[in-house]
Amino acid sequence: MDPADWDIVKSTPLFGAMPLQTAQVLVGNTMPRQYEKGATLFLQGEPAAAFFIVLDGWVKIYRTTPDGLEVVLHVFTRGETFAEAAIFLGGRYPASGETVAASRLLRVEGTAFRSRIEERPALAMSMLASASYQLKFLVEQIEQIKVRSAPQRIADFMVRLTQVRKGTAVIELPFEKGLLANRLGMKPESFSRALAHLRAHGVTVERGTVNIADIGRLLSFVEYAPEDEA
Known about the structure:
This protein is α+β, with helices and mostly antiparallel strands. It folds into 2 domains: 3-145, Jelly Rolls; 148-223, Winged helix-like DNA-binding domain superfamily/Winged helix DNA-binding domain (Arc Repressor Mutant, subunit A). The chain is 42% helix and 23% strand. It contains 9 helices and 11 strands. A 4-stranded antiparallel sheet has the order 1-8-3-6. Strands 2-7-4-5 form a 4-stranded antiparallel sheet. It has a 3-stranded antiparallel sheet with strand order 9-11-10, with no helix packed on it.
């Protein structure tokens, strides 16, 4: 774990409200691991043994219905954690986890994590503060979905994939459009309509490649869109 990795850990809602030293004690000597696209992290119904911190890449959480249909619940990326509720509550994973792109993850064993908190009760207060911070983060995410239009949400996602803030930009979508629609809280058909709408703002998509004619113009659209467009 280098300083950049710890910066990502501290950027997560789960660890963001506690001092770095406290986060280091809780995570322990866990080392990051590289996963290829399509790697299974855990399966629905398995004993909940660990939770994960995304240092890079994308992970989908999904459930399989009795008739074999896969239902994606959420897609996580850098600076986010998942499966922590399962290791706190014990029991089994209520859903499955799989990488949808090459990913670098930190796997934190639940037993060791809980033991550290039990041994040092003061850590529990830090976890409570972080849990409150995480709840605030989730509420803000929901508010963004309610306030921004579908085209604005897609545009915001796109500009976050590049460091370019002036002129043209070319980016690659990290996974298929169906998962992206799920990540942004919309149905696939709504996503397609919103994506077509962005052509008027200089955005064209060919397969998984996105060409942005003017990134500054798109950023302005993310922050403000005329009422008839939003």
